[in-house]
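Sample entry copied in:
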Amino acid sequence: MIPEESKKKYVERPFNCPFCDSEKMKGDEPEITDFIVYRKVECVDCGKVWEERFDLVGIEEVDQE
């Protein structure tokens, strides 16, 4: 289980493994199911795997040219 403090740190700055702090990670292509976008990420150094989940946080109008 990922400690809550590690989750918060990772969400704010997702550049290091939440388990061992390594920068060597690899992730799958994002998958979409219903209204959820997620992808699996693996740390190359410690071998731990976790899932990133993405939320819609807003929208902006796009100028059509």
Notes: Residues 4-54 form one domain.
